[in-house]
Amino acid sequence: MARCGPMMTRARRIFAACLAAVLLTVGLRTVASAQSSENTGIIQITVKSADGSAPLSNARVFLLGPSVASALTTRSGIVKYTDVASGIYRVRVNKTGYRNSTSAAFELLGNKEVDVGVMLGTAQTAQSGSAGSGSRTA
Q: Does 134 score more than 50 pLDDT?
């Protein structure tokens, strides 16, 4: 067997340390993936006008709870958050020309999906006293 000099020994140690770091990272990701399916769920929010006839696109949806996120609704008035940590959440929705709305608190359990419906009244409706309300459907 050939004898290694100090430079070769140092290079092997660095290589071994890098390999260990990569293997540890891959192992942790595998464990996290296994946990995510058990401890996460899906939250789908549908935003419509107060009369329920029209989906509202480009409404800003804030997810408030153990996981916090923000997104704009699609043309269909939908935002879907996946891999959301289990816990108690609220949804807040803002759109120019409409009254802001915050949902009631709801619970997301692992491997489950919660559908939340939010209806926004126009700013003019809010000023005149008629109210469109935020609502939740589980």
A: no
